[in-house]
Amino acid sequence: MAHSPANQHLTTSRGAALYIGALLGPGLLLLPGLAAAEAGPASILAWLALLILSGLFAAVFMALGRRGPSAGGVIGYVTAGLGPRAGRATGWMFLAGVVCGAPIVCLIGASYVTDLTGGGQLARAAVAAGLLLTVVGLAAGGLRASAAAQLVLVSLLTVVVIVAVAGSAGAARAGNWAPFAPHGWLSVGSAAATLMFSFVGWEAVAPLTTRFADPSRQLPRVVAVALAVTTALYLGLAIATIGVLGPQAATDVPLAGLLSHAIGAAGPDIAAVAAIVLTLGATNAYINGAAAMAGQLARAASGRGRGPVLRLLAAITATGLLLIIGYGLRIVGTAALVAVPTALFLAVYLGAMTAAARVLRGPARLAALPAALAVTAMLGFCGWALAVPAAVALAVSWRPRAGTRRAPSNARPAGAVPGPGSPREHELMPAR
How far, in Å, CA of 203 to CA of 73, rounded? Predict the structure, then answer.
């Protein structure tokens, strides 16, 4: 009998492609400029530090996957190490990070459109709101981006970045690296916290460990390839942004500037088209990934999943429009918008690394300990945004009074995925 695609084993090459797809996203179209605005050329130190930290994350999640492949992913890992309440909190923090991240992705696409067509911050917000409503409507109608479609989008982003970096190399100037730290050395920590938004993804592909025929043999190869590719792209883009754009690196559309140097007047046009396509695909993946997790958490609590998913779509719409309107009215800036999901994802990683330090042994445990310390240090640069994960943790930790209706006995524990098999691939690749 033929196996369905969802139940087929992943090959090493396809697994590597899916891991790369989870790690890369539209955040690359914005964050190099934000980091340069915060730390100047010294932001390259933040990139280097996060690339090293990404290697630690990779080692830890690989070890967790080899120790016991979990279809529940990061929720299952945290539950195993820190208990069910911590697992639920991790799931809701990840979900909240996705909800808050969706409007940022829409604003990234809108920024490249208005850079091409003209218009101020209010026009940019209007375009972003239109993009958000479009994708929420498609998600409500049941449309989901397939894994193949997401990989096409990631390939598009990769090609655009390579063309921008290689084509603009001749315009790099050594003088653009001075002064190296115009905002002081502590600004490197702030830049690292901002850039973390582009380094999440290892947790999203954790459930794929159940899809490999031989995780112990395949995972090290998959992780090595994914880490090498993302390191080359991240580092190349960071160096080009600073070396080529110089004082103009502090922009919301750094890739448009690089493409202008690489291919001339058509650069911003290509950047705008790529940004809008990536925004639609990435936000679709964001929303459907969040919907899958919301249904999972709801089923764990009450056995029902569809109602919470519909409420989630309404919450994404309301929250996204509120944040976009605040941006359009200049009440909140891009950096502040990025700070909230960054703090939430950092909290997720802190839970995962802490749990790993408890359940793992040997070199993987040694990787989890410094990773947890590094995440804790970056959380210290999140400032007021720390209130958001704290609020989520408090809400999840609240216990109902005696006599409150309890969840049905057939409810699954947090981190368990209902039904046979593991989550679909398109639920595992939220783009940033």
Answer: 7
Supply the pLDDT for residue 282.
Answer: 75
Predicted TM-score (pTM) of this structure: 0.82
Is residue 428 predicted with pLDDT exceeding 50? no
CA distance 197 to 154: 17
> In the predicted model, what is the mean pLDDT of residues 144-159?
76
Mean pLDDT, all residues of the chain:
82
Name residue 207's amino acid: P
Going from the C-alpha of 393 to that of each of 85, 96, 104, 379, 390, the distances in angstroms are 9, 11, 23, 15, 5
Domain residue ranges in the chain: 9-398+411-427
Question: Whose CA is closest to 239, among 191, 176, 307, 192?
Answer: 176
Q: Describe the chain by its helix, strand, coil percentages, rounded to 5.
A: 80, 0, 20
pLDDT average, residue stretch 103-123: 91
In tens, the pLDDT along 190-226 reads 999 999 988 888 876 666 777 788 877 888 888 888 8
3-state secondary structure of 68: coil
Measured at the CA of 389, the angle between CA 385 and CA 391, to 5 degrees, comes to: 100
Query: 3-state SS string over 6-21?
Result: HHCCECHHHHHHHHHH
Contact indicator for 188, 329 with CB cutoff of 8 Å: no
How far is residue 358's CA from residue 247's CA, in Å, rounded to a whole number?
46
Q: How confident is the model at residue 20 (pLDDT cuts 50, 70, 90)?
A: confident
Sign of CA dihedral 197, 202, 203, 205: positive
Residue 235 has pLDDT above 60, yes or no: yes
Q: What is d(CA 104, CA 152) in angstroms, rounded to the nearest whole number? A: 21
Unique residue bearing structure tokens 């930790």: 397
Count the residues in the chain. Answer: 432
Into which CATH architecture does domain 9-398+411-427 fall? Up-down Bundle (1.20)
Cross-strand bridge partners of residue 212: 10
- pLDDT at position 304: 56
For residue 104, what are the CA distances in angstroms to 86, 140, 161, 352? 27, 20, 20, 25
Nearest to 58 by CA among 206, 163, 186, 175: 206
Identify the burial level of 77 via C-beta atoms within 10 angstroms of its C-beta, where 0-12 means exposed, 13-18 middle and 19 or more buried. buried
- Alpha carbons 212 and 218: distance in angstroms, whole number: 7
CA distances from 78 to 184, 298, 351, 354, 368 (A): 36, 18, 6, 8, 13
